Amino acid sequence: MSVTKNIHFFIKMSICLSIGVSVSANQKNASFVPLAEWNKIMHGYDHSTDREKNKFIFDKMESKVWVERYAVLDFMLKNNFKNALFEQKVLELFTNDPALVVRTQALKVLDRMYPKMESQSYRNILWEEFFDSNNKKKSYSLWIRDKILNSLSSHTGYLSVDEKKKWLRALQEDEVRIQKAAVNALEKRAPLGTVNKDDKLELKQLLLSQFLNQ
Asked: pTM of the full predicted structure?
């Protein structure tokens, strides 16, 4: 059996250790294959099969099966598989994928392997996704909104007036969880000593709002 066929078999079972999903070859008897085994198979490609490997990964990113889209992103993270050819596709998965776990995994890939935090256009995309209704369920925020704020906190450059307004909106959200996430993220951006560790949430919000209004 070729390496590609082996991967097609194992990739459907590859995420069981990450998210508790198992899929068997015949869809009847659940079978668990450790991620380590899957990674070993993926690494079985030699240099002469780079084109085949790239095509396989790209095809899996476009799979109609969400577990395959998730698994290939998980492989990229665990194996530091970085290729500029996939950057735009990963960004599309982050912004458009219907599966929350896939969008979240794509954000991790963007953060760790395609650092673009200094790009205003990329930060604009992050803010668009933070405020997008697809990342809310009724009035409840999905977990990816917290992670987007954390990603935004990695930017160390100048905060524009427009971005300061967006941070203020995040600080003033109705959900306490999002308020806390915004505070935690902004503490990394604000000058040392702006807030104290033991300050109450309301005081931190006030002090950070003052920082943003400067």
From this structure: 0.77
